[in-house]
Amino acid sequence: MGSSESTLSSSQQVDQITTVTEKPEDGVDPLLEQLRSLKITTPILTSIPTENSLTDILVRKPSPSSAPGTLNPKVLLELFSMYHDWQERKTKTISQRQEDIENKIEVANALAVKLLQRFNYSVSAMRTTAHHLSGVHPLQVEVGELKGRLTEVISNCDALCKRIAEDGPESLQSSIKPFTALSNSLFSKPFASSSDILEPNQQYSSSLQQITNTSSSTD
């Protein structure tokens, strides 16, 4: 057991620290050169102790007697000016959007007013039309009654004309024609003038007058 432990411990490698003794050809470490080339910018918070070198910053220790940091007035003025510019841009954008929205609202209101006017006009026109249509049925009834009476009058006149043509005096038979023939000749014309309509009626009236005079003379 002891011999095996001694051989195991002798076979293990011992940890060693190796050091690099070679230096760069230029003799200056580039990382160290970059660190030395760093510059300190103007801080927003300024304090009374100042650090002029990188060593002062790295080994700086907080001192209990140090005064609290104060804002740099120039940096604060720049911040306020940037905020003011941003606020003005936002204000302009919001006002422009508000104007656009107001214009759209005005256009929508104008369209709504026009649509309401047209709707009211349509409603009034529909009411007038409905009122007129409500009087159509009584007119149809009256026209039907007048048509029936006119048909009856025409049939009576036609019968009277036929009777005169058959049994009336010879002086009237040549001038009397059946009323249906007069009506057919009148309505067969495409365009009937007022004289065409009045002339048969005048002839018929004169014939009736002659008949009346003849009957009165015989009595």
From TrEMBL:
Compositional bias annotation for Low complexity: 1-11
Lineage top rank: taxon: Eukaryota
Location of the region described as Disordered in the Swiss-Prot/TrEMBL record: 1-26
Bias (Polar residues) ranges: 12-21
Protein name per its UniProtKB record: BLOC-1-related complex subunit 5
Organism lineage string: Eukaryota, Viridiplantae, Streptophyta, Embryophyta, Tracheophyta
